[in-house]
């Protein structure tokens, strides 16, 4: 039996983890915030505009072009307006929390595969500081 067969203990626990996430009330709220954003054309357009403008300014700056104060002010005003939009703001918060959840679960699984055991709090703390198995400093 391999680890990835449908009836393996690893896959059963993976499904249990997924079920726990899906059943969590806070997760359901985050999903609703994302869905509400996806259904709101105005909020999506505002987000897309700010995102594209931010990338444009970043590329200009990275290329060594000095940004005009008006460009910066206009971008900041658009970003502030985006953050005042309740739907867009809730989406951005939800997106951040969901990404953090994904990163944290991934970190635990990756460290388990690297270490051959469940990582301890100390292992996690060291990885976050860039130590063993976090920054590749120990050959992991």
UniProtKB/TrEMBL annotation:
Q: Which SUPFAM superfamilies match?
A: YheA/YmcA-like (SSF158622)
UniProt protein name: YlbF family regulator
């Amino acid at each position: 039996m391999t680890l990835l067969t449908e009836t393996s203990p690893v896959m059963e626990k993976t499904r249990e983890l997924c079920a726990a996430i899906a059943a969590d009330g806070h997760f359901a709220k985050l999903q609703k915030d994302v869905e509400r954003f996806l259904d709101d054309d105005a909020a999506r357009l505002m987000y897309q505009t700010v995102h594209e403008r931010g990338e444009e300014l970043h590329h200009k700056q990275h290329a060594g072009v000095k940004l005009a104060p008006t460009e910066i002010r206009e971008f900041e005003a658009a970003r502030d307006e985006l953050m005042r939009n309740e739907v867009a703001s809730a989406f951005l918060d939800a997106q951040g929390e969901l990404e953090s959840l994904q990163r944290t679960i991934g970190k635990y699984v990756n460290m388990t595969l690297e270490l051959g055991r469940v990582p301890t709090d100390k292992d996690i703390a060291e990885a976050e500081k860039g130590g063993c198995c976090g920054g590749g400093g120990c050959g992991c």
